[in-house]
Amino acid sequence: MGFLDRLFGRKGNKAAPAEEPAAEVECPHTAVTARWDSAADMGKTELVSAYVCESCHATFSREEGAVFIAAAVERLRVSEESRQDRMRQ
Ligand SMILES: [Zn+2]
Questions:
Q1: 36 lies in some domain
Q2: How far is the CA of 74 from the centre of ligand 1 (A)?
Q3: Residue 53 CA to ligand 1 centre (angstroms)
Q4: 54 with 32: CB under 8 angstroms?
């Protein structure tokens, strides 16, 4: 162990900053929105050019995006149903 090491107490790695990168949280892609190449096509589901996730900015094909959209709709439906269930009680 060198002089500098002793001086700064570099014995163990207690003071060493964590090298581990922050655990990557997998995005559930709940905020997927449709994109159209042409403004004239906007709103036409069959002419969607791509889907983009607003939270992680991942892009998806029309087919992939439709899956996430359907999942989001299903989640909304389920949460609405459970809300109404609570109201009935
Ligand atoms: Zn995402």
A1: yes
A2: 17
A3: 5
A4: yes
Cα separation, 66 vs 32, in Å, equals 9
pLDDT in the model for residue 24 = 72
Angstrom distance (rounded) from CA 34 to CA 44: 10
20 falls within a domain: no
The pLDDT assigned to 64 comes to 93
In a domain, 2, yes or no: no
Element (H, E) at 35: strand 32-35
Q: Is residue 83 part of a domain?
A: yes
Q: How far is the CA of 77 from the centre of ligand 1 (A)?
A: 20
Give 3-59 pLDDT, tens digit per residue.
Answer: 777 777 766 656 556 566 666 778 989 899 999 999 999 999 889 999 999 999 999
